[in-house]
G-protein coupled receptors family 1 profile domain-containing protein
Amino acid sequence: MERTLTNPVCLQFENVSFFCPTDRPLVIRLGIYIFLTGCIIITVFGNLGIIISISHFKELHSPTNFLILSMAATDFFLGVLIMPCSMIRSVERCWYFGKFFCKIHYSFDLMLSVISIFHLCSIAIDRFYAVCDPLHYPNKITTSVTKKMIFICWSLPAMFAFGVVITNSHVSGIVGYEALVDCFNLCPITFNKLWSVIMFFACFFIPGSVMVGIYIQIFIVSQRHANILKQASTRNKILIKIESKAARTLSLVMGVFILCWMPFFITTIADPYLNFSVSVDVYNIVLWLGYFNSALNPIIYGLFYPWFKKSFKIILSGKILHANSSSICVLAKL
């Protein structure tokens, strides 16, 4: 059996609801609220810009961009549905939204996090065929195949997350967890030893290792392509450069994801083996570092994708409301 999560004395108050004020000074709380609100705004509107750009402009309708669109939707929902409540929980050190919504929030939080890494795996596979097998890429990665990949990216994490959280499998054997929720108005992010290991390996380490392996192979092939550029035609040179640049940009997205979420998954697997001694503040820091990844993705696209800069300017200028605006050229001509 797992060791006790909190002091057993709490169990005697399990039918009592307490108001749990934060011990942080008001100035610090306001500062944190302003900073986190800024991150939420960037997350929501940055990813909304990606969603509108790829959805609206016909020139951007490609298998790779559909995967990017779906991942941006994941980050958008994280910014709209998850981050505001998590911000209040982190700043106030209390959960004001009830036990039922705690489960719903927990489920969607876990689901969207796993969905992101599933999308990154799918994008890595897409880039592998685009760079390493360009002749067969149009036949292997079609729009139909991409739709199936997106369906898997959303359905499997949804079943996993809601199944684990609704059944309380992730806290099975942890004495005192229910008391924290019922008695002290908390909604702690907690996994027992079994599920912390499953989460770490199934949702982070294994897919992360697969992605790193794929991008290493892509890098090797890209180097080979660089060596044959001198013999290639001008159009082929441009195509090779475009695919290689896209692979590098998306590998950067993957690298940022791993760096942002690695501390959280390491903390998650270590906490139950440390008798749940990791402080709430440490957990909040690593959790929000993971959330920041959703704000960084639009910034990466803006820095490295000219089409995103151009489409975003069109959206902000209002030209997107004009007739036939979906046919506006946003990609560089070969």
